[in-house]
Design goal:
- The structure is a single chain.
- The chain has 919 residues and is α+β, with helices and mostly antiparallel strands.
- It has 4 domains: 230 residues, Metalloenzyme, LuxS/M16 peptidase-like (Cytochrome Bc1 Complex, Chain A, domain 1, 2-Layer Sandwich); 185 residues, Cytochrome Bc1 Complex, Chain A, domain 1, CATH 3.30.830.10; 215 residues, Cytochrome Bc1 Complex, Chain A, domain 1; 195 residues, Cytochrome Bc1 Complex, Chain A, domain 1 (2-Layer Sandwich), CATH 3.30.830.10.
- Helix content is 45%, strand content 17%.
- The chain has 35 helices and 21 strands.
Length: 919
């Protein structure tokens, strides 16, 4: 029970007599009087009498609703011995409450897309689901019940702590992650921002249930939470539902502890070194910076891009383009209290990490003599503002993003940040560089005595309430139309045609902010012509965005930023294409630039060498990774194509040798031999003119023919002998398990719907499948476990696969649990209730998927390739809806033979065995 006001205290404060009737009236009155606080750009804030803040962001163009509950508690609020407690509690809250005893099952049945996450300043729980009042009522009831009534039981802790430990171990596999973790530990001597949110192993393993329960009761209360609802809903009715479900929760008597630790000014450089098994090197820098709400933060973010953006950043030019490193990155901890700016670089194993670190230091120190130019600042501002504007066109994305700004002190900081970025000048960037990016304020050096210390004094956190008192924001983004995501309506609204060899699927509709998304696929080559040329094909795809005959790599990025577009170009051995997200007015210009990139690449020699070095380092980095080792071995066994075939699976050494052998001339010849628009698909969804875009597609790609004939390469079913292999990966805390079998099925097979739903119950869903319930929820062996089923649409070739991450010492237990659950499913099948609930969840999840334009556009493009409309999807859903438990069991027994399953494992099993021997 929550520790709140007693009924007597509530009645006395209201002047009522001590009667049950009066107490009911009191709670009802509380629930019916929310206070409207403010409204900015379509988002309105209300406050309930119990302290709960409610943000409503209606968007009738979405066919989904996102409910996001944010609690102002994270690792910042953890005490000695409690590291990781906020994150562990995030897991435990999914374990159930009196009214919702199996939360994963409910989420799966509703077809929801849920998750939770924990940072230093907050914890949030969200679910996105089809926009119905019934679903909304369920979500609000769920959030109200688990806010104060979650079980947080010892029996659940006994299994879940090991799941969290496994999650911890998965992060420990990366030396670069460990380096950043140690940098922050060294940088923050006193503040909890120096502690990893996931916690320390000893605290995770020894957490006390009573302390965990007390932590939950203290922080999971309405006065410490913000509820945000975004999507398609009636605002007035939704506010009533919020009051109905969350209003009656009493405001607690307790006062939250005031945290007063302030990180003192750093008085000299600090250093940290991590030594572990690995195949790459890394260097990093950390600087203390103000809180995310501070006015200087906009200039600091701008400076971060000036320094570390690819390809225009100064660090990229100084390190990557000179081949001293293969990658640079940066990030800022946008936190409640003063945080940190991070810079890091990846260096090949045979490179000089000392030289790379020195170049990083010199480049940042050089800001004093060579401050950022107006061009550099404008480029960075455009990129930041583009991302903000595109995000505002997606209400579900904003519904989740707001958690970060709520945690910083106020959700309106999101808009204030945008306003501040617009006003950033080169002088602002120069000033913050001088104020914070100084040697004495960084972590990567040594102590040097000096009679005149030069310290960076970090300003205190500003008064956010005062700062935003009269903030109004801008006019809300224009909303679009309500759109029915049913297959029949999508087909009705989609215009299908051809233009210059391209098949077109154009779905024009009014969208929020005039958003439009597109997907283009170009198909080329044949089995004979592509033999031994897959390496060149992959490099062509990676080179396309690195320069054209008219634009450099940097100019391409700048153009997309100016056009407020997210564009991604891809290419491989058998196809190339692109994805686009932009706005109505910019779509034609984006398509023209995209056509230029695909048709007129310049293949700069310098960029080619940088790309090869980057790819080589990336391949080397996989040499000791359990996941990569297991997947490579598994794929080579399950798909034994001859060497040279486009589908041949290479070893690490073969990948490296082939990559080194590819020349720039090979890449240019591949493009001239195969690229063209003879065969391809273009799907566009959003606010655009169908006739204009259809004509433009023909103008841009008409006459562009491939010089080699295209013939689809079949995917051949292969009945391979099962194997069980184990690979040693020394010094890796996390192991990987992979199991599967090839299936002789196609998606028009009568058994296909039954296999889809059978797999959904066995290893799909959200923590609610048989495998997840057994291996994660009950046994606590794995943070991530599941299975998949696939079948070709054109070829009779399918596969069933299962995978899990786990601690190496649990290898035998995990494998046994997998085999037992598979055997149980094949012996007993699934209950009528399981099948009923699975149907509901699977069908609703497909509706949610069709409501996401970024997903629907891929479905439309793929349908063009397969000559299918969404009528196929509708028919498939009817078949699933008609399934019986007996049909599902018969199909699974027919196609999945446990005796034919191949199992591959990779991990540090020798070390685990040695520990068990010593114990």
């Amino acid at each position: 029970m929550t520790k709140g006001k007693s009924i007597a205290q509530l009645l006395l404060r209201a002047g009522c007599a001590l009667t049950l009737a009066c107490s009911i009236l009191m709670f009802t009155a509380q629930a019916q009087n929310p206070e409207r606080v403010t409204s900015v750009e379509g988002i309105t804030e209300y406050r309930l009498p119990n302290g709960l803040r409610v943000l409503l962001f209606p968007d009738p163009t979405k066919q989904t609703i996102t409910v996001n509950m944010t609690y102002m508690v994270g690792s910042r609020q953890e005490n000695y011995g409690e590291t990781g407690m906020a994150h562990l509690l995030e897991h435990m809250v999914f374990k159930g409450s009196p009214k919702h005893q199996n939360i994963p099952q409910e989420l799966t049945e509703r077809g929801a897309r849920p998750n939770g996450s924990t940072t230093a300043d907050r914890t949030n729980y969200f679910e996105t689901f089809a926009a119905t009042e019934d679903n909304l009522r369920w979500a609000l009831d769920l959030e109200s019940d688990r806010m104060v009534n979650s079980f947080i039981a010892r029996k659940d802790l006994d299994s879940e702590f090991s799941v969290v430990r496994n999650e911890y171990e998965s992060g420990e596999n990366s030396p670069l992650n460990a380096m950043v973790k140690r940098m922050l530990e060294a940088s923050f001597a006193w503040h909890n921002y120096g502690k990893n949110t996931i916690g320390e192993r000893s605290d995770i393993e020894n957490v006390n249930i009573e302390r965990l329960q007390a932590y939950y009761k203290r922080y999971y209360q309405p006065d410490n939470a913000v509820l945000m609802i975004a999507g398609k809903f009636d605002e007035a009715k939704t506010l009533e539902l919020v009051k109905q479900y969350l209003g009656p929760i009493p405001k607690p008597e307790r006062e939250l502890p005031k945290l007063y630790t302030t990180e003192p000014a750093q008085d000299g450089e600090r250093a940290v070194t991590v030594r572990r098994v690995g195949d790459i090197q890394g260097a990093g820098l950390a600087y203390h910076i103000p809180a995310g709400s501070h006015p200087d933060f906009a200039a600091i973010q701008t400076l971060g891009l000036v320094l570390a953006d690819t390809p225009s950043g100064r660090l990229h030019k100084a390190l990557v383009e000179t081949k001293k490193a293969v990658f640079v990155g940066a990030g800022q901890l946008q936190t409640y209290d003063p945080g940190a700016a991070l810079f890091f670089t990846v260096v090949p194993k045979d490179g000089s990490v000392d030289e790379a670190r020195n170049v990083m230091l010199q480049t940042i120190d050089d800001l004093a003599k060579n401050p950022p130019t107006a061009e550099e600042v404008e480029r960075a501002r455009q990129k930041l503002l583009k991302d903000i504007e595109l995000a505002l066109n997606n209400s579900d994305r904003i519904g989740l993003t707001m958690s970060e700004y709520i945690a910083m002190g106020d959700w309106r900081l999101y808009f204030l940040r945008r306003d501040r970025i617009r006003k950033v000048t080169p002088e602002d960037v120069k000033r913050v560089a001088a104020a914070y990016f100084k040697p004495s304020n960084r972590t990567v050096g040594m102590f040097i005595p000096t009679p005149t210390p030069d310290r960076a004094e970090i300003p205190p956190r500003p008064d956010v309430a005062a700062m935003l008192k009269d903030y109004k924001g801008e006019a809300p983004v224009a909303i679009g139309e309500e759109f029915d995501p049913s297959p029949a309506n999508i087909d009705k609204r989609t215009a299908r045609s051809t233009a210059a060899g391209l098949k077109l699927a154009l779905l024009s509709k009014k969208t929020r902010g005039g958003k439009v998304v597109a997907r283009l696929a170009l198909r080329f080559g044949n089995e004979k012509d592509l033999a031994n040329r897959d390496g060149a094909g992959s490099l062509v795809g990676d080179m396309l965005m690195r320069g054209t005959v008219k634009h450099t790599r940097e100019q391409i990025q700048d153009e997309f930023d100016k056009l407020k577009a997210r564009a991604s170009v891809f290419g491989g051995a058998t196809q190339a294409g692109a994805t686009i997200e932009t706005t109505r007015e910019n779509l034609p210009a984006v398509m023209r630039l995209l056509a230029e990139i695909l048709r007129e690449p310049s293949f700069p020699a310098k960029e080619f060498e940088l790309l090869k070095q980057d790819d080589l380092t990336g391949i080397e980095n996989q040499r000791s990774e359990p996941t990569s080792i297991a997947f490579t071995a598994f794929s080579r066994h399950m798909s034994p194509y001859p060497k040279g075939h486009v589908n041949y699976v290479k070893t690490i050494d073969e990948e490296i040798a082939d990559l080194k052998a590819v020349t720039l001339d090979d890449v240019k010849k591949f493009h001239s031999d195969f690229y063209g628009a003879d065969y391809g698909e273009l799907a566009v969804i959003g606010d655009f003119d169908e006739k204009e875009i259809a004509k433009l597609a023909g103008d841009l790609f008409g006459g562009w023919k491939s010089s080699r004939p295209f013939a689809r390469i079949p995917q051949v079913y292969q009945d391979v002998e099962p194997i069980s292999k184990s690979f040693e990966t020394p010094d890796k805390a996390n192991a990987f398990f992979l199991a599967g079998v090839n299936l002789n099925v196609r998606d028009d097979d009568p058994d296909y719907p039954a296999l889809v739903l059978g797999n959904f119950m066995l290893g799909g869903g959200f923590l609610n499948s048989r495998l997840a319930v057994r291996i994660r929820q009950k046994d606590g062996l794995s943070y991530g476990v599941g299975s998949s089923f696939s079948a070709g649409a054109l070829d009779k070739r399918g596969a069933f696969m299962a995978n899990a991450i786990y601690a190496p010492q649990n290898a035998a237990k995990l494998e046994a649990a997998f085999k037992e659950e598979l055997a149980r499913a094949l012996k007993d099948g699934f209950t009528a209730d399981e099948v009923k609930n699975a149907k509901s969840g699977w069908l609703k999840s497909r509706q949610v998927s069709r409501s996401q334009d970024n997903e629907l556009v891929s479905a439309l493009a793929n349908g063009l390739y397969l000559n299918r409309t969404l009528a196929w999807d509708a028919e498939m859903e009817k078949k699933v809806e008609a399934l019986t438990p007996e049909q599902i069991l018969a199909a699974m027994r027919k196609h999945i033979d446990p005796a034919k399953i191949t199992i591959v494992k990779a991990g540090d099993f020798a070390k685990a065995a040695q520990k068990q021997t010593n114990n």
